[in-house]
Structure formats: C-alpha cells, structure tokens
Design a protein that fits this description.
The protein is mainly beta. The protein has two domains: 34 residues, no CATH class; 131 residues, Alpha-Beta Complex (Nucleoside Triphosphate Pyrophosphohydrolase), CATH 3.90.79.10. It is built from two helices and ten strands. The strands form three sheets. Strands 7-4-9-8 form a four-stranded mixed sheet, sandwiched between helices. The chain starts with 23 loop residues before the first strand and ends in a 9-residue tail after the last helix. The chain binds zinc ion. The site of zinc ion has 8 residues, from loops.
Amino acid sequence: MITIEEHYPGRIFKHCPRCGAGGFALRDASSFRCERCDFVYFVNAAAAVAGLVFDDSRRLLLVERKNEPRKGMLDLPGGFADIMETAEEALRRELREELNIEITTATYLASFPNRYLYGGITYFTLDMGFICAATDFSRMRAHDDAAAIVFMRPDDIDLDAIGFESIRRMIALARQSPSSPTSAF
Ligand SMILES: [Zn+2]
C-alpha cells in the first residue's frame, strides 16, 4: 500500500502531459486523470536491477554511491532498466558502466520494492537482484555512479551503511542462501 508522502508525484505533477491543462488530479493512489481531455496517467513501479558479485573468497562487491540519493552510502552495483531493455541487458550494461567488468552469468535471486528520491520526486522502483559471476576483475574501476569499490563478507556488512531498504533485504537474503551462479546468458 502506497502512502502519499511529501515527494509523491501527486504533490508535484500539476499539468496534463498531453494537453497541458491544469487540474491534473489524482484519481487514486497510483493514477492521474486530466479533467479536460480525460487522459489517464499511471504511476507504475520503475524496473531496476542490482548485481551480487562475489570474489573467490566469497566476499560481496559493494560500491560507494557517488551521487544523491544516499551519496556516500554503500550499494550494490546496478540501476534503472532503460526502455525496451531486458533485466539481463540492464545488468550487463550497468556493471560495465559502473565497474568496467563483464558478467558471464546471472542467476535471479529476488525482487524488492524501493523508493528513490531524485530531483524532488519519489520514484517507486522494483529492484531485481541477480547473483552474477564475472571472469576478470583486473580492469575493474569505479565509474559513473560508483565512487569506490569494496569487497566484504556478507556477514560483516553493516546493513545500516547500505543506502536502500531493497538492497539491505537482498544482502540479508544472500546471507541466508549463498548460492553460486549457474545460469549463463
Ligand atoms: Zn489533458
């Protein structure tokens, strides 16, 4: 159940994106209707991916966030899926952009909803976690949204240092059932 909070789109969107009229009113907790042209806009969850990459010592790769929201906190590498992209393609692209590594396998773990405050609006996301393997860490560098890379044993990670609830839940799940990747792309 969505609770309407300060940054919810219903507090931000004032005009119809089709005809430009004011009076772009919330119809319910997740949709708007234009009073002039009847256009209905749905606020759907945005798809996002996160990669759980382990090294040979079963330490989990974490990134320090370079940008807001949650700048300076720890995160899993990943990000939003682009339009018409698969989750696997988004994962491959994001880990390439943030870490300069190539994934060889990705096994679906679980998904958790999240709130992502950016530019004064809360984006509601569905974060999909994948256990990933990468063959070569030799050219790995922190890029893009990642300020630094750290490897930690899952049990040693302070969950309060993780920026997002969905990522905390993925790490907690990985602690319970440390699985190795089996599915190739
Ligand atoms: Zn309209």
